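Re-run requested by the PI after the first attempt was lost when the workstation crashed. Everything re-entered from the original request form. Ligand of interest: protoporphyrin IX containing FE.
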Amino acid sequence: MTSDPTEIVTLDSGGGGRLYDQLDELRAAGPAVLVKLLDGVATWSVIRGDIAKELLVHPHIFKDPRKSWAGYRPGAVPWLYPFVDVINLATSNGDDHTRLKQLIGKAFTARRIEAMRPGIEAVVADLLEALERRGATERVDLRTEFAQGVPTRVVCDLFGFPADQRPEVLRVMGYVFARDVTPQESEILAQDLHRAMRTLIEAKRLMPGDDMTSLLLTAHEEDGDRLSEAELVSTLILMIGAGGETTVALIGAAVRELLSHPGQLAKVRAEPAHWTDVIEEALRVHAPVMYMPLRYATADIDLGDGVVIRAGDAVIIGFGGHGRDPEIHADPASFQIDRADKQHLAFGYGTHYCLGAPLARLEAQVALPALFDRFPQLALSVAPDQLEPQHSFIGNDVVELPVTLGPAASPSEPAGPRAGGGRTPVSRGADPLAAAPPAVLQDR
Ligand code: HEM
């Protein structure tokens, strides 16, 4: 690292408006700016949209800390565990990345994703029914009672989590993006995460099912070179982590913006084809993953303006920076579903582009119209600027999304297919996360 360490700013973990303000400050400060993360981890932050894209496909920027990060000491920084110490496709390059992506990619082909639609519709229908039982004027946390239910149930179904293990896995995953935890808490959470995945693997070993975990386990047991034990656990951590909280934030951001812009809500109600615009504009303005630790330079990279990233340095890309870059978008912070150019890097770019992007988009496309159809008078209970941001520089969400639902309209069509149909089995009845029996992990 080249700069004077005393001058290094800390990447703000307060979330919300402060996160956006800091994006602007860092973008103005240079093509890359040295910052500190929690526990003193030093890294170059890259916010400018054009530089971010350049580095995301740069031949000397890698994601494998074991091979490329000069300062890497495995396990030394507990909060980095789910992002850096794990061994999965998000921390691999080259042949390892290709091998792991081939294994997981089977579940994410366009055909497989589309086959999940009936299951997603059924999950959404269940959640809406549960919401209908709440009073029309009662304050409801839509994040917990709707936004969170959709992707977490879908991803838990996809990976075959038994109902009794879901509360524990969702508890620990909920903390992965939260950055206001102490090193000791991070260490315990890392152990809990690891244990939750091991418990799932043991359950699948005893009783395999038609799910991704059983498929990965078979690959591991047939040939450890195709998928090692450590890769199996790490892959589960990646998939559950990536597939849950991110889409929760997307659904929540779209709801918040539409409720704050009644004209745009009216427009999308009148022309449902605009739901795609709503989703892309929410991703552009409120990237659910603001930053994702970490990348590493394997050669010196001269970015101009006197900034040289040295071989072995860590780099963090601000995925939320591109959509808010004034060089790319006019009035970038304002939510406008009819703006012509909504390009963003919310799902990344290049080799590590989000594998679950089509699934996340499909979930939002099913969930959002169904919610607004069922509750035509949905309203925020507090002013948008009063919503408490998630305390993180990784996840970009609010802690709670308080709304009043208003009277429910009849479902526009019968709830999606509830039995059979589609590859993904879905949970039935009331929210299993609330109703499931206590977590089996009693040794915590
Ligand atoms: C709105 C929702 C989502 C957002 C904003 C999001 C964002 C991202 C971003 C920014 C990356 C790139 C990370 C990097 O290059 O360092 C990524 C990678 C990834 N995402 Fe997503 N994601 C979402 C949903 C999902 C879902 C639903 C899944 C799967 C169930 C998923 C699985 C993955 C995987 C496996 C990778 C790693 C790909 C690789 O390294 O090759 N994501 N995601």
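Saved to the shared folder this time. The pocket of protoporphyrin IX containing FE is lined by residues 89-90, 101, 155, 238-239, 242-243, 246-247, 250, 288-289, 292, 319, 346-348, 352, 354-356, 359-360 (CB under 6 Å).
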